Amino acid sequence: MLVYLSQFDSPDENYRQFQTLSSFHRGVLDSEATSIICDGFLRTFEYQEIPELLKLIIKKLRINGELVIKDLDIDLVSRHILDQRVDLATINEICKGSSKSLLLCETVEGLLSGLEITAKQFDENTMTFIIKARRVQ
Questions:
Q1: Does the pLDDT of residue 91 top 90, yes or no?
Q2: Is the four-CA dihedral 131, 132, 136, 137 of positive or negative sign?
Q3: Alpha-carbon span 108 to 43, nearest angstrom
Q4: What is the dihedral of CA 11, 131, 96, 48, to 10 degrees?
């Protein structure tokens, strides 16, 4: 099963989309997903909820399944503001919606126990990080 967790529409119709944690939890069995993409999904939760959220997401992933996390990186956002590369209206547009937490790539990476990081990249234009990881246990 291919899973897309996001408030945004999935760019790939092969992925089954879930916008809420409850629908994801009911709709995907443990170890059923071969690929899970979290596109801006983590920031819709309180910061202190994220470690347990990631444990639940990882639990739904098969061994050797891939997890992709794409989200705003507060470090990149801050640098853009300090360097005046982006105005306040643009920042508000990017951060609007149901954002409840600010994330750092390194913090999220540290919470991915049982996963092997296969790629990590940053997009300066969208101020996002992307982590790709494979479940090894």
A1: no
A2: positive
A3: 11
A4: 130
The runs of H, that is alpha helices, within 7-122 are 21-27, 50-59, 74-82, 88-95, 105-110
- pLDDT surpassing 80 at residue 73: yes
d(CA 56, CA 63): 14
- What's phi and psi for 33, nearest 5 deg? -80, 135
Q: What is the pLDDT of residues 96-119, one digit of tens each?
A: 766 888 899 999 999 998 899 999
Burial of 1 (0-12, 13-18, 19+ CB in 10 A): middle
Residue 96: alpha-carbon gap to chain centroid: 16
Integer Cα distance of 109 and 125 in angstroms: 21
Residue 79, token pair as written in the block = 């640098």
Question: Which residue's structure tokens are 């470690």?
Answer: 51
Distance CA 18, CA 92 (A): 25
The Cα 137–Cα 135 span in angstroms is 6
**Residue 33 pLDDT level (bands cut at 50, 70, 90):** very high
Residue type at 30 in one-letter notation:
D
pTM over 0.70? The answer is yes
